[in-house]
Design a protein that fits this description.
The complex is a heterodimer of chains A (about 850) and B (about 375).
Chain A (H helix, E strand, L loop, with lengths): L1 E3 H4 L11 H10 L3 E8 L7 E12 L6 E7 L10 E5 L9 E5 L4 E2 L3 E2 L3 E3 L2 E3 L2 E2 L17 E2 L9 H4 L4 E7 L10 H12 L21 E3 L5 E10 L9 H9 L7 H13 L3 E5 L7 E5 L5 E3 L5 E3 L5 E5 L2 E5 L3 E2 L9 E2 L6 E2 L4 E8 L1 H10 L5 H8 L6 H16 L2 E10 L6 E5 L2 H6 L5 H11 L2 E3 L3 E5 L10 H12 L19 H15 L3 E2 L5 E2 L1 H6 L24 E2 L4 H13 L5 E8 L21 H9 L6 E8 L1 E3 L8 E2 L2 H14 L5 E4 L5 E13 L2 E11 L1 H6 L7 E6 H7 L15 E10 L4 H12 L3 E10 L8 E10 L8 H19 L2 E2 L2
Parallel strand pairs in A: 14-17, 30-33
Antiparallel strand pairs in A: 1-13, 2-13, 3-4, 3-6, 4-5, 6-11, 6-12, 7-8, 9-10, 15-25, 15-26, 16-25, 17-20, 18-19, 20-21, 21-22, 23-24, 27-29, 28-29, 31-32, 33-34, 34-40, 35-36, 37-38, 38-39, 39-40, 41-43, 41-44, 42-43
Helix pairs in contact in A: 2-4, 5-6, 6-9, 7-8, 11-12, 13-17, 20-21
Chain B lengths: L17 H17 L3 H12 L4 H8 L5 H40 L18 H14 L4 E2 L5 E3 H4 L10 H5 L4 E3 L10 E6 L5 H9 L4 E10 L11 E11 L4 H16 L5 E8 L2 E10 L23 E10 L1 H6 L8 E8 H8 L13 H4 L7
Parallel strand pairs in B: 1-5
Antiparallel strand pairs in B: 2-4, 3-4, 5-6, 6-10, 7-8, 8-9, 9-10
Classes of the chains: A alpha+beta (about 850), B alpha+beta (about 375).
Chain lengths: ~850, ~375
Amino acid sequence: MRVPLSWLREYVDLPATTTGRDVQEKLIAVGLEVETVEQLGADLTGPLVVGQVLTIEELEGFKKPIRFCTVDVGAANGTGAPQEIVCGARNFAVGDKVVVVLPGAELPGGFKIAARKTYGKKSHGMICSGDELGMGDDGSGGIIVLPPETEVGTDAIELLELRDEVLDIAVTPDRGYCLSMRGVAREAATAFGLPLRDPALLDVPPPNAGGYPVQVADPIGCDRFTARTVSGLAPEARTPIWMQRRLQKAGMRPVSLAVDVTNYVMLELGQPLHAYDRATVEGPIGVRRAAPGEELVTLDGTKRVLDGEDLVITDNRGPIGLAGVMGGANTEIAAPVADPETGALRGTTDVVIEAAHFDAIAIARTARRHRLSSEAAKRFERGVDPEAASAAAQRTVDLLVLLAGGTAEDGVTEVVSPRGPRTLTIPADHPDKVAGVTYGRETVVRRLQQVGCDVYGQDELVVTVPSWRPDLADPNDLAEEVIRLEGYENLPSTLPLPPAGRGLTERQRLHRRVGRVLAGAGYVETLNYPFTGAAVLDQLGIEPDDPRRDAVTLVNPLSDEEPDLRTTLLPGLLAALRRNYGRGSHDLALFETGPVFRATGQEQPARRLVVDRRPTDDEIASLDASLPQQPRRAAVVLAGAREQAGWWGPGYPAGWADAIEAGRTVAREAGVELIVRQDQHAPWHPGRCAALLAVADGEEILVGNAGELHPRVVKALGLPERTSAMEIDLDRLERAGAGALKAPRISTFPVATQDVALIVDASVAAADVEAALREGAGALLESLRLFDVFTGEQVGEGKKSLAYALRFRADDRTLTADEASAARDAAVAVAVERMGAVLRG
Amino acid sequence: MSAPNKSYDPVEVEALKPEEIARRVDEALAAIAAAGDLDALAQAKVAHTGGTSPLALANREIGALPPHAKADAGKRVGQARGRVSQALKARQEELEAERDARVLVEEAVDVTLPYDRVPAGARHPLTTFMERVADVFVAMGYEVAEGPEVEAEWFNFDALNFVPDHPARQMQDTFFVKANGAGAAAEGESGVVLRTHTSPVQARTLVDREPPVYVVCPGRVYRTDELDATHSPVFHQIELLAVDEGLTMADLKGTLDHMVQALFGPDMKTRLRPNYFPFTEPSAEMDMVCYVCRGASVGNPDRPCRTCSSEGWIELGGCGMVNPKVLIACGVDPEKYSGFAFGFGIDRMLMFRHNVEDMRDMFEGDVRFTRPFGMEI
């Protein structure tokens, strides 16, 4: 809502020194979001006067038609002599009253006016268009032609009200009444402690049977319909400058007098109105729901197929308007047209004025269904004062009579479904309890009255809320009115004392730890968008029946290529890797933690549960069952050097082993020692892919995969060679977590170290050899470490040698050399037996 | 070597003569002084204090002396040996010090050499900032609550008093999820959305727990905005919910004050402005004094502030007293309990706290942006 300060002053006697910024501050404090205060004409200086065109000489020989004019500007130029002005516009004639800017003036945008030579003539000023004066483009592109009665020499800055301040207010959905001057004025009056001149307080004749016939078939969709008729409008009547200017400042374009008047009254009172050309309405006006498939061409020229829920205004032919949203083209007020023979203006002379009240939800749905957000719909959606309809109709009639020479017909139609005033009962100290401030009954009553409520009672207040405040429905709504008018800025600051908390949950701690440990290992966290599409899964080589294809799909994605939510963290991470690489960072280690989304295929549509009680546990369970699985994952990707070469020696490239180790690193934070197995799984290299497993509830479960990416994937995604990746499910890890660690017992007896080298088939997994050694070594084994892997002639074709350092120690004694050797031999024996290992001599 | 002096005659033993001993001592001292390094000193030590050294041999002769001569000779030899070993010790220390000094000089390195062997990793500042904000409240006794990002509309809207067709439901640009699975055949709506705010966690918490409830919920939320310098379709919020007996707006104000002071410094102030949100009543927009200009840019065209557009205040987010309708929908008795809630955009807070100029920097994953933030902020 754009509110010109000059217009606001009509209803509230603000002190003359009060600026737009002052009003802004006060209105913000009472809860109106005044986003800007526009300073109109602040950079405009005169002389700017009304002139009358005396002569026009058409200048020939230029690329465009140019006129050399003399204009009478009265005494404004100091001499009284005609002002000579060159002008390129053509929409004026000798005798027209125009706006003239004289040398020495400055127009908006720092445009200084001086006498200058142009088109072979000297031009002493300019004849102005609305655009040049900062009035907003009226669409004509021409200069302003003023009404003939305007006096020559009049200061045009004042005449056109060019200097003003306009408050731009973003009205929240609960404050529909502030989509009107009346509503904003009420708030301003309260904020400044001044009386309000309510423009809706008008004498309105009682309804009678002589008005235009109206039949409301849907009293729920339309609980009030006022129709008035004005006849004998002069087609040549034009909208006065003051009204045009107010409309322009409020952000509306002047159209024609009848339309401008209805718009003006809507801005003033908040009641949307519609004027029908009576000559084009056939029979009684009706209000009903549309028949599905019915059609209507609205004023914007669009043909609309109607829905059975749309409220329509009808005449004998069918729909003539989309109720509360937009009128129909078939009953549009006709613009005055000159009769080609007589020259007389012809246009709409008789109008039927509609001031109705429609159901907010019906209007909201229709506006959304037809993607048609009109000024009227915007107001009805937020709630229009139903009691303002007859006053608004009266105001429209008055203005048409005054400005268009029309005659108000006696007939007054009012179809009303009576509804009683809305009353709430609240304890007088309810606002105090909500605010934590003792306002006292007197203040509470006074503030509620300022809002427009009737208030009775002592400890219990019986509050009748005003018709323009449909949002005041609950005790807290009334509390807010009191508190905001008393000032949010005056609320004290106190701290509640919550019960002692338990800190973060184990799961939350785990998630933080995983981030820290990966960052500590050199990985940089990225937060990638979860939007993805089938194309990247294809590039990753993921099969059509892979569960990672079971994506959650959006109805309205930002990009049609990425309509799905991620089922794996890898696409986002790999895109970030590629982006970094492209920007010149080549040694990269990235990680992300976050949910992935897996459609189960079992989701039922989520029900719209009631809100007047807590849903049952079953109902809540049904909502949860409508959701996809959203497990939390961690993933890393790496490329380039894991360790850089430098003065200390060579570096080494990031690879599959780093990726797997990242998995172990994460798992350890969950108290899980991963089981690593050879695997083949897209998008990994079939020979360099590990399955990461953990034991939960006595069973091995797959928790993730790691390794080097498949060369085809690397190529398809444009990634650096040997890019490696790991992805692991944190929820599953958490399940496999060991819980509180038992502290190890530390023996202080000396360690006995034994090295063994075992030759096994190249296909034997080191993890299996290690498991065999551990099993065989028994309780004396303190630790075991693989320190070398060797292949070559000495060990034979298809074989490898694994060298282990075994450390033995007892809790209660120093081990003898024999004991240590026996333990080693036992370890080797199991490896020999199980893996066919040969002890290397 | 002399034979034991069994006759007890005073025997003149050459080696024990004072002059002879003095000569040996001089020889020893000279050799010790001449030893140029620890090896030479070791040789001198063997030569002059070893078992076959002249002084050691002289010492053995003492046993052959008659008792009355023993003491005298013993004293003489003992003193001589003492002088030698003292000189040895002194020279040893001297030479060791020389060696140490030399070796340490040889071992000196250029400690200014860079060591970027394994480049540092870092956590994302949005993650660590969310944790930091949450920790402010955890320290006050709040707990951290979580909820799903793909959420039922009932939790995201209905339970929060966004009734169907309420204009407020249109204020937020929602990503809707396609009906899937068993319901897909009906071509109907799924009733599931990407949560547009962290507020559904409020409803989930109230449905799950008995008051008193004091929770914060940091998390990722979604709206259909294209990514640009100031918008992102994916962003982060932190939600707070307190439901207890007798909570007031003053408590809300105090909690907000505490938060901004904990995060931005003890001199930070907040301001509440009336506003409208379906799930709170009364509702307020909360501002804090501009972190960058501290209000100095207001009415001062010479010092414009881009962070607050020279308004002096920065909008942090919405807050208010939990609408009793929300309490009812979640099974909490509004006659007995009241509550307050707020929700703030983490991304914007991070932007002005750390002077981030472009929202895109936070979502493109460029390591040059994230690395400097390290482990915590």
